[in-house]
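Lecture notes, structural biology module. Today: joint structure prediction for complexes of two components.
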Amino acid sequence: MKAFLGIDVGSVTTKVVLIDDAGTVLWHSYGKTQGQPIRALQSAFAALRRDMGDTEIQGVGTTGSGRKLADYVVGADVVKNEITAHALSAIHLIPNVRTIVEIGGQDSKLILIRNRVVTDFSMNTVCAAGTGSFLEHQAVRLGISIEELGNHALAASSPARVAGRCTVFAESDMIHKQQMGHNLEDIVAGLCDALVRNYLNNLARGKDISAPVIFQGGVAANPGIKAAFERELGQEFIVPVYYPIMGAIGAALIARTTKKTRFRGWQVAEQQLSTSSFYCPDCPNSCGVIEINNRNGVIARWGDSCGKWGILGG
Amino acid sequence: MKHLRIGIPRGLLFYSYAESWKRFFQDLGCETISSPETTADILKEGIRHTVSDLCLPVKSFLGHVAVLKDHVDLLFIPRHVSMEQESYLCPKMIGLPDMTRACFASLPRVLDPLFHVKQFGDKAIDEFTRPVAESLSLTPSRVADAYREHMDHTTEVPAEQHRRSERLLAEEAVVPRFSGKMNIGIIGRPYLLFDRYLSKNLFHFTRKLGANPLSFRPDETEIREAMAVIPKWVYWDMGKEVVAAAHVFFKDDRIDGVINLCSATCGPDSFTGDLIRKRLNQRNKPYMSLSLDEHTSDVGVQTRLEAFIDMIAKVTA
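The predicted structure, tokenised, for the full assembly:
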């Protein structure tokens, strides 16, 4: 069988999908990146090979903040930014989509689409308040799992008011509320409201959020956030079946135009790869240079702004 | 007699006026030394010497002060309050000499003449030149002559002034040169746009992605035209230029999209950014505001830039 691979190496999770020519998802995986994107990628590949090892990979697309790294490890045909990747998959699966709300581990996006064309977008700027990492951190602090967080929020009778502009403020506000005696459900619901307010303030000011609104990214798993958005905007938020892997699907869709793939083959899963880094001492810019090594030495190097260290297509 | 060495930190208004400043001091018999282009180390020095609430370009400026301070007799850090009637520069620029003194334990003498047209009108030049004359032991009239010759931004020759500055900004200061490729208008304060390090090499990466980045400084007429479109004149000197550049780019059919480069905590930019988006982009041209901060990585800027170019190219269609 012939198929196309899409890889989304995000800051918190790594997603791999396999699609056919028509864009149908044949296989997918979703795992924590845990600060080790290469290992996360390799374990996804080991599973992929076990399940779908007889597939002939005809094209590979990568996206996410680790898209370049994934390219070096796997051999990609297309390396695409997350905005375009998310827009492509949403348009493919829901052709009349007009708004995409995407909240991932470390960033959030708003993409406006009219007649299958992106007309405007925004990404969260300098802070990660209002993203998945923040929710997860608070869930841990409250002693509940991230999966349960949303249901707790839905059970609230009177959501507490929590400051959402900054995670540090939100956290101290939540602690204050809990010491005042607010119950867990109300605090969690207040947290969801705060995250939604933060998102709308940062990304959606002055933007026309019109239906259908598609809600994707890992945080779309949280029914508390979905409900908070719907309450705030008075609009339905549609969570697509493949909400956590939409970026990877988008990357795979773009790879469908590949003529001859650069895919390094299934041994990707077993390569002994390690990374190292150094600060180049040759000029005051002190660029941080990253190296990927296999058993035979350096196979890729990048991060220098002048290009003197870059090898293998850096 | 040994020439006095005047240090001019390469930051903030340097990117607008350095060429005139240099000629002014050279005419007065001084030697001028500027710091090199911003590097990671210079910014790190600036951050080390300052409080975290300041904006990126001010932090970088203080890094340039750190680089220069031990190699010069005087540091030139003018206090520009207003360049013309009814407008002001941002409070951080107004307080720049004080902030610099507060951030360093030892400094050479700081020459901080006041430039304040709003308060002093035609007398602003005298206010500016008097302390310079004192510091350099010259007669006020000689300094005022040099000023009129090289630095008079208030007379009716701004176009010429702008051209001079553009030459100074060398390769990045592109006078509009349209190409058959995708043309992207880039607006923002000169000290961000033309500082390769702070701007994360925006011009370079735009070209690398196959688009043509364009930037220019609007003249008086263009500023007046832009101000006529919005509810009231913009209060900030430099903000006015950014708004006017946006207006010109939005009207020009050859421009495919506009990027507004600003620093994350810039007060004036947060106002002008909103004006630009809501009032000037009436034809709904692709527009993106890119905000810069201390992130060492270029990835954030590049992701947004790639997505912006994809959007203009309608790749999802």
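Point to remember: The beta strands of chain B are 5-8, 31-34, 74-76, 79-82, 109-111, 114-116, 182-188, 211-214, 257-263, 287-292.
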